[in-house]
Amino acid sequence: KVKVSKKEKETVKGGTFDRNGSAESSGTNKEDRAKKLFPSTLVDNTDKEDLAPISIDVPDPDFHDFDLDRTERCFGENQVWAAYDDDDGMPRLYAMIHEVISLKPFKLRISWLNSKSTNEFGPVDWIGSGFYKTCGDFRAGKHEIKKSLNSFSHKVKWTKGIRGAVCIFPKKGDVWALYRNWSPDWNEHTPDEVIHKYDMVEVLDDYSEDQGVSVTPLIKVTGFRTVFHLHLDPGQVRKIPKEEMFRFSHQVPNYLLTGQEAQNAPKGCQELDPAATPLELLQVITEANEVSMVENGKNVVEIVDNATKVNEEVTVENVEETKERERA
Question: Domain DUF3444 spans what residues (predicted)?
């Protein structure tokens, strides 16, 4: 088991930069939600730049120390990093690293990525309703200096799009949190208790505009805080079309356990970063409530391997069916 000292993450304060190109509408809604979540840490102040970031304690992982993946030396030019937001502290903000000025003290030259619309997915006014955009096309904003290492979660895969756009989409093998109750009718009046319910999924294929993306649920492993395994039922594989990409809340750093981490480490399972996992999903389950990890003498590795194989077969079948319909 990983034994680490008390860890904290820092959220990036809303209103200090033009995150989404519509600071007045989305920023105000976000601040209202943040006040409900962290009322004791926020004060009324017209000069938002003076507000200190919120520090949130992070539970220990079971095996892998994710902080080793975000040390000062992990940062480099032209990288995109996710940062923790001021809503519920999940990594929904993106920063382009332009220069590593120094490591000690830690100092970066960055620009926050922003977007004024979600037209690439459909007519839903996601940004105007106060939600963070985490998939799609982004633009780099003004340069600024960033000194807080604890604000950053993980390095993000990205590609360059038309006219220099930064494109971020779910990739095969990624783990993302989905909004469990998502609806295209969500707006600035949707209650937090409806919004902040999540399901963890593993992405089975790269996103495409025509196909969308396929995902399969991740199920909590009994007896652990941060360990999950693929759902064993291939019928649970979901195809998320382009119009529903707003379901994706944020990417969650993950580590595939090899079984060498400790005597009780379940090989083939995914350990998720507790700093990017909602607290309700970090509760230890003492009794298996959905799928037992050991069935009829099968070991964890065999079960996970079988689930992976079946899920990949289902994904291929879905693609072939779509191609046949297009040919017809």
Answer: 55-261
